[in-house]
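Friendly challenge for the regulars: who can give me the structure tokens for this chain first? No prize, just bragging rights.
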Amino acid sequence: LKAAEMAARRGYDVTPAEARARLGGRLLAVEKLGPKRELLLAIDWLERTLDELGVRVLLDHAVTSAELAAFDRVIVATGAHSE
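First reply, four minutes later:
Bragging rights claimed.
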């Protein structure tokens, strides 16, 4: 999200996509940790900032290879899994 924000600020046309229905990835796991929930404010701030910059975020969207081929540049954040 931060990369999308910085690229948008530099004038690039940015389209972040998230496979889930909500932004935040692994950071969302802190929701159950009481005071550490404040970390989620970073997600809220980035969402608002992207909205103010006119960046359309695709939620619940798994990007296809055909979609990737349409872009000049791509940043891929694959996420993380805990075991």
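The chain has a mean pLDDT of 86. The two ends are 24 Å apart (CA to CA). Your move, everyone else.
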